[in-house]
Write a structure and sequence with these properties.
The chain has 470 residues and is of the alpha/beta class. The protein has helices at 39-57, 84-92, 96-113, 129-141, 170-175, 219-230, 244-259, 290-295, 300-308, 320-344, 354-368, 373-384, 391-405, 414-417, 422-436, 440-452, and strands at residues 4-7, 12-15, 23-28, 61-66, 145-148, 151-154, 191-195, 215-216, 234-240, 264-270, 273-275, 278-279, 316-318, 455-460, 463-468. The structure holds adenosine monophosphate (AMP) and zinc ion.
Length: 470
């Protein structure tokens, strides 16, 4: 299966070709573990998961690295503000190490509940300080750094194509700097590789280095750790679009300065999850977590379904109403799968018919054209409604789609279908009793009540069936 992805570097859809045949090396910027991930962050990890599944579906072995940032990420990406971990420690009274451990576990719990396949490696920044120091030394030896006010800075003026990912031209970099300027910086866009004095006071995590005791800047961790696990050149680097202008721009500058050659071939960025007309973000308080969705009765897989309904390069507008619609569709899908399993004795076709193959072909086409998951969902429902297809074919096609959709439908328990609220189960039971007693008036009334509650009742020769009204 040939793949085409939109590459932010070049702003075009391009054929995907790996450096090493059959192996795709993928690095995705991961969480800063100072708080729970919000569902906007989780959109980014869900996008990474779809990408990884598609690469595997297309036959690649995928080396998937996601970093855990447990030091060095300031509240402002531009070296301003306070370390997010230190801030959280001050606010909660817990140690930075305890906070990191707690929220790293919370991150894994979240991604597991969303059926996100765990990355091959999840390196922690604090376990890789030596690799970061080695890279800064390499940059120093090549003349890309300077020391000022106790910090080591990367000098962007030594890097002729600085800003190529964000399409920033040099004039713009010198003239229009609206960012707060650290007076130590020669160019306002220079960035810190190693902090010593300037942010030192409240920092609990510090290490010895050739430049004094201190801690690394945020950007250096991704360069050092990706190269350790994937090599000095690799295939794909991912992250949210907010990373294009600073974080990824700086990662590229320092990585290519260190090695003297191109670093990453494909840059893929997911758009934001939007709520109340603004980007979902912790800093503005405009955010929700999986736990808060659970309080409203939503399962993590409802959110997974919801995100699949939007293309990863489009903004996705979140509301409880649209999540409810996704939840109904997700439940309906699960119910259909349970029914198909029942009808076929859980035996999908081993060879899908020619009519069925058309759906598989379309599915692959949607994915290979820049991961078009909304069209995959459209194709899925079209297929399920196709009266010309047998149940065994339908089940086999669903299982094929599910390799990417990731609902684990093959192992779906009957329990899922029975996840109707007990009051609804009671209504269905009492309607069945009314029918047995030939009390048609009561049975019809109960049917209307159930419909109001979103359950459609159908009486078939094999008994009464129900579906959710989507
Ligand atoms: P952070 O922990 O802030 O570095 O964010 C983790 C990941 O979530 C990064 O790839 C961000 O770009 C991404 N991200 C942050 N906010 C949103 C949002 N509202 N929608 C989608 N992705 C986001
Ligand atoms: Zn990163």
């Amino acid at each position: 299966m040939k793949l085409n992805f939109f590459n932010t570097m070049g702003r075009s859809v391009q054929d995907f070709k790996t450096l090493e045949p059959g192996v795709a090396k993928l690095y995705c910027c991961g969480p800063t573990v100072y708080n729970y991930a919000h569902i906007g962050n989780l959109r980014a990890y869900l996008f990474d998961d779809i990408l990884r599944r598609v690469l595997e579906y297309a036959g690649y072995k995928v080396d998937h690295v996601v970093n855990i940032t447990d030091v060095g990420h300031l509240t402002d990406d531009n070296d301003e503000g306070e370390d997010k971990m230190v801030k959280s420690s001050r606010e909660t009274g817990k140690s930075v190490w305890d906070i990191a451990e707690f929220y790293t576990e919370a991150f894994f719990k979240d991604i597991d509940s969303l059926n996100i396949i765990r990355p091959t490696v999840t390196p922690k920044a604090t376990d890789h300080i030596n690799e970061m120091i080695a890279m800064i030394k390499r940059l120093e030896e090549k003349g890309f750094t300077y020391e000022a006010g106790g910090n080591i800075y990367f000098n962007i003026d030594k890097s002729p194509d600085y800003g190529k990912l964000a399409l920033r031209d040099r004039q713009d970099l010198h003239a229009g700097a609206r960012i707060k300027v650290d007076s130590n910086k020669k160019n306002p866009h220079d960035f810190v590789l190693w902090f010593t004095r300037s942010k030192f006071e409240h920092q609990a995590m510090v290490w010895d280095s050739p430049w004094g005791r201190g801690y690394p800047g945020w950007h250096i961790e991704c360069s050092a750790m990706s190269m350790k696990y994937l090599g000095e050149q690799f295939d794909i680097h991912c992250g949210g679009i907010d990373h294009i202008s600073i974080h990824h721009t700086n990662e590229i500058a320092q990585s290519e300065a260190a090695t003297g050659r191109k670093w990453v071939n494909y840059w893929m960025h997911n758009e934001f999850l939007i709520m109340n007309k603004g980007k979902m973000a912790k800093s503005s308080g405009n955010f929700l977590t999986l736990d808060s969705l659970a309080d409203d009765g939503f399962s993590p897989l409802d959110y997974r379904y919801f995100t699949l309904g939007g293309h990863y390069r489009s903004q996705l507008q979140f509301s409880k109403e649209s999540l409810s619609a996704a939840a109904r569709a997700r439940k309906n899908l699960f119910d259909k799968v349970i029914r198909l399993k029942g009808e076929t004795n859980n035996t999908p076709s081993s060879i899908i018919s020619q009519e069925g193959q058309i759906y598989i072909k379309n599915f692959q086409e949607h994915l290979s054209t820049d991961l078009n998951t909304p069209r995959v969902l459209g194709e899925l429902w079209l297929m399920l409604k196709d009266v010309g297809l047998g149940s065994q074919d339908k089940l086999a096609i669903i299982y094929e789609f599910d390799k990417i959709l990731g609902f684990n439908l093959e192992n779906l328990e009957e329990v899922e279908a029975e996840s109707l609220d007990s009051d609804i189960l009671e209504l269905i039971d009492s309607r069945n009793n009314a029918r047995k007693e030939k009390n048609w008036e009561k049975a019809d009334k109960m049917r209307d009540i159930l419909l109001e509650k979103g359950i459609i009742i159908k009486d078939t020769p094999n008994g009464t069936e129900w579906t959710r009204n989507v």
